[in-house]
């Protein structure tokens, strides 16, 4: 029984060693050679909105008012 466990342990160890050594030959990318992109910039006319039913900005709802309406219904 003890001999059987030793055989199983040595076979398992050999498989693990072969698996780990097989992964070591892969070429991993160099993380320091990555090019950085410039930060994104907003276009100058980003805040312009088309004319439509919601184009008037007189009735702006703040987030607290919106949350109250969602919780307690229209008031």
Task: Please provide a brief summary of the model.
It is built from two helices and no strands. It has helices at residues 2-23, 63-72.
Mind explaining what this structure looks like?
- The structure is a single chain.
- The longest helix is centred in the N-terminal third of the chain and has 22 residues, at 2-23.
- It is built from 2 helices and no strands.
- It is an all-alpha fold and 75 residues long.
- The chain has helices spanning 2-23, 63-72.
Order of helices and strands: HH
Q: What's the helical proportion of residues?
A: 40-55%
Average of pLDDT: 76
- Quickly count the helices: 2
According to DSSP, the number of beta strands is 0
Low-pLDDT segments: none
Biggest sheet: strands, sense, closure? none
